[in-house]
């Protein structure tokens, strides 16, 4: 077993880097364990186990974002469980990022550290997994934050939320408003209202969590139950797994393209593994009635195709037009390794009028295998389209 998760403790040691406080009790490679300020030194391990992520490789190859990472127990754990990239974000926490820098160096793991309020930071990429532990109730703007997290996730991405819950019993979704003057489940801590992420705002009940998942198109599992010693020991705290609903709505394989309903212009006859363009202008026309909703801002069109390339014709250049308007240009080169999938991001406004994806491939220099001396095929080939996948994305 990976020594981080081994959990045999030689001795607890107080702040090994002389910082004032450690929020997380984190193992050290020599078997010692950093003492946290919590009474329960097993808190983070209980939380981690409640997530039911396999310690040996459960996050293999995943890009993980740990929001409110604090001392970084969960960032290190993610890396130890196989994550290919870990990004940790926090802002005003007193020992940030000193403790995380210390512990990641000790464990020799590479972590991207971002000091920011995650709500207005431009991450510029998407993640497979987001940890959002102990942050939800620190937000004035729960709804826009969840919307942001959704957009930060890959299509089949997972958001783990750990939160203080309201204990108000109701079947209706309720958020309890943290207060210093009413006996709410935890105080507001009004004096820190001007800081990011210190004061408390809203504690959801279970229905509010499910409603939040529903509003932003997630499937939601409560990670309660026998394996969850964390919530058993801390009944007012729960962990939920939000799974981003697949937005994939249209998938056209080479078999689908055989019907030719979608094709016009310069296409060859569809073959089992795909359809060649044959000439300079090949059109695709795909009805999108079922996918366009008010909420979509873009659609992503991923086209898997192979180009016809030869040493005597080492490049295929293709202009892509949407509804007759130039969108981008694709270049395939003989000398470079070919990525057979290319994705177009198309603003919904460009297709909303017709509710149809009207895509033109302008092949600048099609050529026949015969012309390059490859065989006696006289079709003027550009690319062979094999698969078209269309997804909608939200604001
Ligand atoms: C209660 S602590 C939880 C720490 C850790 N995630 C855990 O569960 O043990 C909340 C952390 O989230 C950070 N935080 C809260 N709101 C934030 C925001 N908007 N942007 C970045 N960090 C935030 C705080 O600074 C703090 O370190």
Automatic annotation (TrEMBL):
GO biological process: methylation
Xref: CDD domains: AdoMet_MTases (cd02440)
Keyword 4Fe-4S: no
Entries under Gene3D superfamilies matching the protein: Vaccinia Virus protein VP39
GO MF entry, a single one: methyltransferase activity
SUPFAM superfamilies: S-adenosyl-L-methionine-dependent methyltransferases
Keyword Transferase: yes
Superkingdom as given in the UniProt entry: Bacteria
Coiled coil: none
Alphabetical UniProt keywords: Methyltransferase, Transferase
One Pfam family this sequence matches: Methyltransf_23
Name of this protein: Class I SAM-dependent methyltransferase
Organism for this UniProt entry: Cyanobacterium stanieri LEGE 03274
């Amino acid at each position: 077993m990976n020594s981080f998760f081994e959990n045999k403790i030689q001795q607890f040691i107080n702040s090994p880097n002389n910082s004032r406080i450690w929020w997380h009790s984190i193992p050290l490679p020599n078997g010692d364990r950093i003492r946290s300020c919590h009474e329960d030194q097993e808190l983070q391990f209980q939380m981690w186990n409640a997530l039911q992520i396999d310690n040996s490789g459960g996050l293999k190859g995943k890009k993980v974002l740990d929001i409110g990472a604090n001392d970084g127990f969960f960032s290190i754990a993610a890396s130890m469980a196989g994550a290919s990239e870990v990004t940790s974000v926090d802002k005003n926490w007193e020992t940030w990022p000193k403790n995380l820098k210390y512990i990641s160096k000790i464990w020799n793991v590479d972590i991207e550290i971002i000091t920011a309020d995650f709500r207005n930071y431009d991450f510029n990429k998407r993640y497979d997994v987001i940890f959002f532990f102990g942050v939800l109730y620190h937000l004035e703007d729960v709804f826009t934050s969840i919307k942001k997290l959704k957009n930060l996730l890959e299509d089949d991405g997972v958001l783990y939320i750990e939160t203080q819950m309201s204990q108000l019993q109701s079947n209706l979704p309720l958020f309890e408003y943290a207060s210093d003057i009413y006996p709410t489940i935890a105080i507001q801590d009004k004096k820190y209202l001007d800081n990011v992420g210190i004061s408390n705002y809203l504690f959801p009940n279970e229905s509010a969590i499910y409603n939040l998942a529903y509003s932003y198109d997630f499937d939601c599992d409560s990670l309660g139950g026998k394996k969850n010693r964390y919530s058993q020991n801390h009944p007012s705290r729960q962990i939920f797994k939000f799974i981003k609903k697949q937005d994939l709505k249209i998938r056209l394989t080479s078999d689908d393209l055989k019907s030719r309903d979608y094709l016009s212009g310069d296409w060859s006859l569809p073959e089992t593994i795909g359809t060649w363009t044959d000439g300079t202008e090949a059109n695709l026309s795909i009805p999108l009635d079922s996918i366009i909703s008010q909420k979509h801002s873009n659609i992503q069109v991923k086209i898997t195709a192979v180009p016809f390339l030869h040493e005597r014709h080492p490049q295929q250049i293709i202009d892509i037009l949407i509804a007759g308007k130039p969108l981008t240009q694709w270049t395939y080169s003989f000398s470079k390794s070919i990525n057979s999938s290319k994705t177009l991001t198309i603003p919904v406004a460009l297709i909303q009028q017709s509710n149809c994806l009207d895509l033109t491939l302008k092949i600048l220099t099609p050529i026949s295998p015969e012309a390059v001396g490859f065989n006696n095929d006289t079709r003027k080939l550009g690319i062979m389209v094999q698969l078209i996948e269309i997804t909608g994305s939200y604001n």
